[in-house]
Amino acid sequence: MRKRKHRPAKARMPTAREETRIKNTGYSEGGASHTSGILKAYHPVRASAKSDIDANLYTLRNRSADQAINTPIGAAAIQTSSMHTVGAGLKVFPKIHYLDLGLTHEEARAWNRKTRREFDLWAASKHCDLYRRNSFYDLQDLAYVAYLVDGDSFALFRRKPPTQFMPYSLRLQIIEGNRISNPYGGSLTGGYGVFSVEAKNQSNGNRIVSGVEIDAEGAIEAYWISNKVPGDLVEAAQMDAWVRVKAFGDLSGMPNIVQICHDVRSEQYRGVPYLAPVIETLKQVSRYTNAELTAAIIKSFFALFFTNSPAGAAGLEGIAPSAIYGDEDESVDPRAPVVDVSDYGLGPGTLNALPAGVDVKAVDAGRSMSTFDPFVTQLIKHIGAAINIPYEVLMKNFTSSYSASRAAMLQAWEEFKLRRTWFARDFCQPVYETWLAEAVAIGRIDAPGFFDDPAIRAAWVSADWYGPTMSILDPVKDIKGSAMRVQYGLSTREREAAEMTGTDFEENLDQLAWELKMIESKGLTLGTPEVLAGKDTESEDEQKGGEDNGGVLEIQK
Q: Residue 242 burial (CB < 10 Å; 0-12/13-18/19+)?
């Protein structure tokens, strides 16, 4: 039989019968890959708002409050946002739609000025606070900080009889978010009370999600307010009790309580703490900082050890025990110290004589901290990026160029203006509308048709809210930019005055007119600032060698 010659197989194209591997495209080989070495064990789950938010609120609030109180960076984040967003309080600037109300421009401005003064009568008084501790402007800071720390805060509209010095009955009660919780009993999921996620109102069948009662369609019907913080150990003797407060009045339709909150989920009823995305990083920065601080303290210690010198070891054998240990009658303990350290001391110009054969060794806890600052700086930049506050603003560290520092300020300012808008919508404007309704009802403010037509009412309650202005790094450049915006019709003098200095443009004009009148009454005219400031200025005659007039320049009209 003839042996066949072996020949190597040749490559060939696959036939239709052979199976070919289909490689998926898109996210299958990217973020959704289950074969990647990085992602194959990465299986996060996005659940409902109740599972992701409400079930974790108790832990998030506690950790957020701890970071806001006990860590410098957490406290800086809260205080920086509060200082630039609310500051000393947002001021109302009524802006009624006078054309829709049939008023002239002059009549509208007169109404706006009167209403602003009247509102300040109530807002600047501590009588606006149920506890008589803070003005409305101070309550803004309390409500805003509570909103940042807890994720949301609440303002309850209360009533007290008017007094001789306060003609209004409206009172505000600021409630922190942890007091809005599910009442005991009827829990559907989770635990009980503050620990429950969803409960049921047995009287009407409505669901209660973390203290917020909603109807079958998900609309908010009421809030459940505890008489204390549930589980508070200081008030353990007081029994927990809940009060149901309707969200809106049955007759007036006006809010009885407002929630200061910014939603990030469509079916969300409770807010997420401001520091929630960065809690872990803040904790790590705090631990690392404490570790480095402890190491630096230890390094500052100067430790000395007395040891037997190798060169004098043989000589120690002939030394009497009393020469080293001070007691020749007792046997020598080999574990005893070489010398009695109480007989020696450290100090300027101190000289110590040691026994023969005894040496001194110093311990230096060598530790380099050269990497501490750049590492922590990068972590803080990550924190600032997550909460939308640049590192320079968060840490008050403006060591870069003017352009870089201004860019950081502008970026932060956009964040502060956005949060100011949210806060004014949730808190300030509802309070103003509620107050204005009472002012019109008792006749202190004239607003025809206020209670007759919702459209007319909306025209009367329109207002702007202004607060702290952006820090000015270069006043000359900022003022020139403001002037150009007005010149080209991109803004108004009134808005620029409110945003740059927090003042009213019309009041500024009145004050300037009075100042001009005073200047003219003193025989002066508008001249250089040095003249009006009383500084010594040389006149043209003095510059030419003329007669001295006592250092005061008089400008003739």
A: buried
The reply to whether 466 falls in a domain is no
Which of 134, 154, 135 lies closest to 144 in space, CA to CA?
A: 154
54's torsion region: left (phi>0), alpha (psi -120 to 50) or beta?
Answer: alpha
Compute the average pLDDT of residues 46-67: 89
Q: Is residue 76 part of a domain?
A: yes
> Contact 339/354 with Cβ under 8 angstroms?
yes
Report how far residue 358's alpha carbon sits from residue 154's, in angstroms, rounded to the nearest whole number: 73
> In this model, does residue 294 exceed pLDDT 70?
yes
Structural domain harbouring 228: 51-275
Chain-centroid distance, C-alpha 504: 28
Measured between alpha carbons, how far is 330 from 336 in angstroms, rounded to an integer? 12
Max CA distance (Å), the chain: 141
User: 34-38, 243-247, 450-454 — which is least confidently predicted?
Assistant: 34-38
Flag whether pLDDT at 272 surpasses 90: yes
> Following CA atoms 377, 379, 381, 386 in sequence, which dihedral angle do they give, to the nearest 10 degrees?
-160
Q: Structural domain tally of the chain?
A: 1
Residue 245: which H helix or E strand, with range? Answer: strand 242-246
Residue located via tokens 């450049």 = 477
Q: Is 360 part of any domain? A: no
Mean of the pLDDT values across residues 323-335?
A: 55
190 part of a folded domain: yes
State the average pLDDT for the chain: 80
